Amino acid sequence: MFKFAAMNGKNQGITRTKSIKIGPGETKRVVFRLDTGKGPAGTIHGTIRLGGRPAPGYTVTVESGEKSRSARSGPDGTYTVTRIPPGPLDIQVRCQDSGFEGVSRALSRKKIDLPPGGNYRVDFDLQVGSIEGKVLLPSGRPLGGVMVEARWKGGGENPTSSRRVQAIAGTDGTFTLGNVPLGSWEVAIRSQNFKSARKARVEITGPGVVARVTLRALSTVSFTVLLDPPLAKGEFYQGYRLVPRGGPLEIPLSGFPWARENSIHLQAPPGNYTLGMWIWGKGGKKWVARGRLTVPEKPKDPILVLLGPREDPARNIVKYPVAGKLFGKDGRPSGPGQIHFNSTRDGNTGLSFMGGLAFKIGVSKDGTFRGELPKGDFTWWAVVRKGKRREFLSSRSKRVHIPAGGVTDLALR
Fold this sequence. Notes:
By secondary structure, this protein is mainly beta.
């Protein structure tokens, strides 16, 4: 006598058992009929279009809890996903970038509640365009093999996971950034060995629109910087910013350096720069210290940089009154709690060194808040109390703009 058991996917909890007797040389079939408790599975089908035309080759993913099923759209743009358990579903149209990282991006999503055995039609009309261009060296020769990245800068709808689009330039220097959501985009080379002389700004104004750019690539050199005076005990370098002083490079370079005591290793095109160091100390204290340096074409020895007096990055900031209401995930006013506003690097020129300043404003029980913020662009997140538990709310990188003079009717959702 043998006893068979059916387990769930995590090998936890026996859902069915069956005993069967098998004699010498016998072969018997054991069939388990499982009841999921949710009713019969259903089907999701539909058509994906781009600019009104069928869009083949896109992946449709249907997520139900921890499980997901997917299918690809055919030549006529249609897709069918079967054997889907009933209940709330998150349906996404996704694509794969051609950059080194091979990022999978969600282009559009819809949420539905599938009844048991339901056959549901969900169509998508993708609101995406593309960016085509070429990477050239200062000599005019094409540069291939480098990754090009476009970053969303606003406009259109918040593209969620599609805020960055990547592609690799071919041997002739040409590249295509496909499936770019509507809005304003900044295009630049993303490479250690090459930097864009300047970032290109383009607009994707409608489905199927093709924007064209030309990127000028500057080769970089690796060098070591010795910083004086050295850090005190308990301090560390949190970031750096290289601001060009003339020359072909027109955009600052910034990042989080590998730092050891008073030396850091950097990579940048040869030229004259102002180097700013973002310093963190005990108790979360922040400072900015700046110094000048010249990067030669063939660095050999470490470059000594004399840092000037430390500055408070929040000094002389003018704040304006801000008031509004915070809404929870259910769409209703949410509170009490606290909102954290984080300044964005490019939206607050001169406001902060690394764009890392944060401001807090309290939220009342009815969701209203009142405080002060500098002008500029901010992302935000909030924590509100719901009885004994807490709810986390986020802007999901959708920016909030605070104009000079402030704003009194800000709705955060």
